[in-house]
Amino acid sequence: MKQYKNEAGRYIVDIHGIVQGVGFRPFVYHSARELKLCGYVSNIGGSVFIDVEGEVISMKHFINKIMKTPPPLAQIEKINIRKAKMKGYDCFDIVKSSEDKEELRFIPKDTAICNSCKKDILENSGRWFHYEFTNCTDCGPRYSIIKELPYDRCSTSMRSFEMCPACKEEYENPDSRRFHAQPVCCPICGPQLKLLDCKGKEIVAQSAIREAVRLLKEGSILAVKGVGGFHLMCDAENQKAVAKLRSRKQRPHQPLAVMAADAAAIENQCVLNDRERQLITSSQSPIVLLKKKATCSLPNILAWDSDKLGMLLPYTPMHMLIFADGLKYLVATSANLSGMPMEYENQKAIDHLSEVTDYFLLHDREINIPIDDSVTKVFIEKEVISRVGRGYAPLSINIGAQHQLAALGAEQKSGVCLSKNGYTHVSQYLGDMKSPEAFENYKKVLDHLIHLLRIKPQAYVHDLHPGYLSTQYALEQQGMKLALQHHFAHMASCMAEHKLTKPAIGVIYDGTGFGEDGKIWGGEILVGNLKGVTRAGHLKYCAIQGGDKAVEEPWRSAVSYLYALGDCSLEGLAGLDNGVTETVKAALKAGLHCFESSSMGRLFDCVSALLGLCSKTTYDAQAAIILEHVADRQIQSGYEYEIQEDQDGLLIGYEEIIKAILTDIRKGKGVTEISCKFHNTIADATVEAVVKVGKLYGVREAVLSGGCFENLLLLEKSIKKLEGHGFTVYYNEKLPCNDGGISFGQLAAADRIMRG
C-alpha cells in the first residue's frame, strides 16, 4: 500500500458523454501518473469510470484538469463524484472494460484524420507512411464500425484484424499517441485496398491509390469506399467526366458535393469566412454550403441551379493520398441508384453500381453501419445543419426526457430518435423510403441504436400519415403508439432544441404533411407548446391535381392555382403549355385525383413554373431552390395580399399575389425582380399573420421551421421583420428544419405529453 505524506483520500468518478474512443482513458492515465495518484480507469457501458486515491491537493488538481481540459474530441455531459474509503492502490492502471446496461450511454462519432496522422502518411518515414488506414486516439472511424458498447477493439469491425507486435506495442504504450486507439493498424496487420474494374475483377498495380489517381485524371468514374459508405468520384474540373457521372447516375440537376485538396483550393473557388473555415476544417469535416466566387473556375454543371457549392475536405488518409499527386477537386457524391440507400458493402456495391462506375477502389474493413456525409451551412455566423451524418451522428441532446421512446420520423429525409436517461439520440440521415432496401436499412439503424443504447421503448411515436412506412412499422410494434401531426413535430423540434417551454407561435412552411382534417398541410401558423398546439392560421387551401406527380411536376401546381383563380389563360407563360394542361384542367373540374392543400412548398412550385424556371423536377425542392437563386436581393417591394379570418383562424390568401405576378409577367418584368417581390410578400404576409396571432394569444416568441426555411432568403427576411415587431425568433440550428428534424420533434413532444 502506497504511503502519503499529506492528507489523502479516495474518489469514485463517473464521466458521461462522448468519452469513449476519444483518448479519455489515456488522458486520465497520464494525468493521474503525473500527479502521483493511484487507482484505475475503465470503460463501463458508455461511460468512463475512475477509481482514484492520493493526496487531497493532487486529487483536486486531477479532477479540475479532467473537467476543464479534457481531450479535444471529448464532450462531457455529466460527472458524478463521490468519496470512498481508501483501498490501498499502489499504481494507476487502465483496466479491462465492463458492461453496464442501465448507465447513461453515448456513442462516439466518426472523426476526420488529425494533423499528426496527416504528417505520418505524407511526411514521416515510419510505418504509416502512405498507409491508407492510419489513425490514432484523436481520429478515425468509430460509430460506423461499432457493434457493441463499451467501445473496445473486440466490439468493432477491427476485431478481424489481429494487431502485429509493433502495433500492439503502440496500443499498450501509455506514451504513444495510439495508446488504446481501437482501430490502430499498419500495412502489416490492417485493412488493405484493392482496385477493381466495373465487373469486380482485380486490377494488379504496384499501388492501387496511384493507379486510381491516374484513372481519375483520365476522366474515369470511381466508386471509392470510405468511412461510412461509397462515394462516386470523378475529376470535378473535367466537365465531360461530371456529365458522364450525371448521366449514369440519372442525376441531371441536383448539386454535387466537391472534395477539395485543401482549404486554399476551396478559397480559390468560394467565399470562405472564419466560421465557415472553422467548420470545414473541424474534426466533423462536413460538407459546407459556400457561396461561389464570381471567378469560380469549376464547371457550372456541378450546381446548375444555385450560386452555392457544397465543399468538403479530405477526411480519411485514403482521401489525403488521392489528392497527394496533383488532383485539386473531386466530385464526392453518395454512391447509390435512384431511390436506393447508399452502398456500403463491397459485393452489393459491385452488383448495383457496375453500370455507373468504371472502377472500384475498396477495402476489406467492414462498415457495420452506413452513414452519409453531414451537410451544414453558416447563417448569421451560426452553424445550421441541413443533414445529420458522419461526424455529428448519433446526435445527443439533453432535453430531460423522462421516458424511453422511439420516434420514427417521416417518409422523406427519414431518421429516428431514441431517448433514455434524459437524453435524445438522433440518428444519421437515412434518405427517402422509396424502396424496400431503404426501409431495411432504416430498420437496421433503428435496431442497432436500440441495442447500443440498451433502450426498451415505452412507446413508438409516429407521423399522423397512415401511408408512411414508419407509421405502419410503429403500428406493428408491441406496446403504446402515439401519433403526432407532422407540423406540430416540426415546431416541437425547434422548441425543444432551444429549450423553449412557454407558448410560442410556430410558422411551419413545407411541402407536404398530413393534416388533422385529412387535407395536406404545409403553410401553417400554430400556437402552443410541447404538449399541444392550436392551428391559428394557414395558407388558403387550393385543390392541387396529381398527387405525388404534383411534387415532381410543378407546372401542375401552377395550373391548379390558375384554375382556382378562374384564370386559365397561359398566354405569355413560358413554363406552361396549353397542350399538356388541358387534361389537368379537366381533372380539376371533375375533382379527379385532387387534394386540398395549404402547402407553401406547392405555392413556391407554382411561382417557379409560372416564371418558366422549373416545370419538372429531378430532385427535392428544385423549383424553390431555383426561385431563390434568381432573386434580386436588392428589391424591397412586394405584392398586395389578403389575410382573412374564418372558423379555421387566419387565412393567408394567394389570389392577389398570383394575379400580381401574372400582371408583371405579361408586362415583361424580369424573373429576378418577380422572385424577390414574391419572397418579400410571403415574409410580409407571414409577419402580419404572426402579429395578429401574437395579439390574440399574448405570445411574443416565434418559431420558424419546415423545409421551406432551408431558403435562407425567406428565413432572413422573416426573422428581420419579426424582430422588428418585437418578437424573439427561434429557428433550427442543431437539427435540420426539413424532415430530418421530425423524429426529434416527435420525441420531445411525446415525452412532454406523456408526463401529463
- Percent helix among the residues? 25-40%
CATH architectural grouping of the largest domain: 2-Layer Sandwich
CATH class of the largest domain: Alpha Beta
Strand pairing plus helix content: what structural class? alpha/beta
- Structural Rg: 28 Å
Spatial ordering of strands, largest sheet = 6-13-7-8-12-9-11-10-14-15
How many beta-strand elements? 30
CATH H level, superfamily name of the largest domain = ATPase, nucleotide binding domain
CATH-assigned fold name of the largest domain: Nucleotidyltransferase, domain 5
Strand content: 15-25%
Indicate the mean pLDDT: 94
The separation of the N and C termini measures 55 Å
Low-confidence stretches: none
- Number of continuous helical runs: 22
Task: Characterize the main sheet.
Answer: 10 strands, mixed
The best one-word shape is globular
- How many domains? 4
Short synopsis of the structure:
The protein has 756 residues and is of the alpha/beta class.
Describe the structure.
The chain has a ten-stranded mixed sheet with strand order 6-13-7-8-12-9-11-10-14-15, sandwiched between helices. The longest helix has 27 residues, at 671-697. It starts with 7 loop residues before the first strand and ends with a helix. A hairpin with a 1-residue loop joins strand 18 (417-420) and strand 19. The radius of gyration is 28 Å and the shape is globular. By secondary structure, it is an alpha/beta fold. It has four domains: 8-94, Alpha-Beta Plaits; 108-191, Alpha-Beta Complex (DHBP synthase); 193-363, DHBP synthase (Alpha-Beta Complex); 520-528 and 535-731, ATPase, nucleotide binding domain (Nucleotidyltransferase, domain 5), CATH 3.30.420.40. The mean pLDDT is 94. Helices cover 32% and strands 23% of the residues.
